[in-house]
Amino acid sequence: MTPELWKMLVGAVVLFLTAGAGLLKVWTELAKVKAERAETTAKRDADSQSLHDSVQRLTWENARLKEDVQFLRTGLDDHQMQLSVLNTELAKLSTKLDSAIELLHDLKEAK
User: Fold this and answer.
1) Quick one: pLDDT at residue 5?
2) On the CB side of 42, how many CA atoms lie within 13 Å of its CA?
3) What is the DSSP letter of 111?
4) Closest CA relative to residue 107, chosen from 3, 39, 99
5) Per-residue burial over 74-90, b = 16 or more CB atoms within 10 Å of its CB, e = otherwise
6) What CA–CA distances, in Å, run from 71 to 40, 60, 77?
7) CA distances from 47 to 43, 51, 56 (A)
8) Concatenated DSSP letters for 40-74?
9) Is pLDDT of 1 > 80?
């Protein structure tokens, strides 16, 4: 082999090894990126699940609070009705008491 062929062969081998080293570096970086992406995806999925769980819990609590409010409103309506009835009865008793007082005054004056 001539020295020129040797130079070309050595150059080709060096070029091949350099390309292989570069390719190895690219594969290594690609593996790192894939690992980071998998970690990020796992974290995002965990955060998403946590958020979903929180939304479900808050939805349940909201429904429970709505039921409690409805229960309290029903109770309040019942109490307002009872107060209305009591006010009506109180007005009747007040009228009767006024009549009784007038009757007592009339009896006192008649004596």
Assistant:
1) 87
2) 6
3) -
4) 99
5) eeeeeeeeeeeeeeeee
6) 46, 17, 10
7) 6, 6, 14
8) HHHHHHHHHHHHHHHHHHHHHHHHHHHHHHHHHHH
9) no
How much is the pTM?
0.52
Say how far apart CA 92 and CA 64 lie, in whole Å: 42
User: And the tokens for 46?
Assistant: 């965990």
Q: Which two tokens stand for residue 108?
A: 């006192």
Backbone angles phi, psi at 2, to 5 degrees: -85, 160
Handedness of CA 57, 63, 69, 72 (dihedral sign): negative
